[in-house]
Amino acid sequence: MPEGDTVWRACKRLHQALSGQELTATDFRVPTLATTDLCGRTMLEVIARGKHLLMRVSGGVTVHSHLRMDGSWHLYRPGERWHGGPDHQIRAVLETAAWKAVGYRLPVLELVATDAEDTVVGHLGPDLLSPSFDRDQAIANLEADPARTISEALLDQRNLAGIGNFYRSEVCFLLGLDPWRPVADVDIPAAVDLSRRLMKANLRNGAQVSTGIDRPGQRSWVHERAGKQCRRCGTTIRTASIGEPTRERVSYWCPVCQPGAPAVEPSN
Description:
The protein has 268 residues and is α+β, with helices and mostly antiparallel strands. Helices cover 22% and strands 21% of the residues. The protein has six helices and ten strands. This is DNA-(apurinic or apyrimidinic site) lyase. Keywords: DNA damage, DNA repair, DNA-binding, Glycosidase, Hydrolase, Lyase, Metal-binding, Multifunctional enzyme, Zinc, Zinc-finger.
């Protein structure tokens, strides 16, 4: 699933291409928006809120989308070949004189009143990439449930918005925390600060990097490295699902660098 920095970069590209431009054609290919026409309106701005994309259009309308596992927005020049996927995966096309923004495989796509955006993003905690990030509130949100595992707490977008599985796994490794460590036993301010620092650093990259080495196969310490040797101590990286049954996510960790007793039998 794309994480906050990925969504932020996507919004930056869309904003640079579309903001201030009149929409010359719009095509929404979802039943609820099939008759919607935003032609003649101006794209005011495109911003990220956690993992959500908000395209604010003149007339008080916002196009809200969420990429979830494999959604994406692509930009094309007029006449350029589209390559984001087959046509049946296209959910929206927004055109200006200079660009076509094409949304593929968008599981969430809707229009909301701009002054009612809180109905779709109001539940989110402080956005880690926002210039006005409320660090104290994020810490308070995480510490409100001290018995919860740090893995579940970091992934809960109601606590702080933007962290996904990559950052959750890497932050736990870098702080020496096994994924099942309860929040009460974690230096939460340090976890929040490291999460924000990593995400902000990666705004400059085209990939997510926690090791400082932006090369294929060397970008992460533990994430998606199950069965491989720990870069620090050589121990085999383990993996297991963690979280409530309906919201389980795979976690990666080194049992030596992140000591602790897992709550379930690891799969590797």
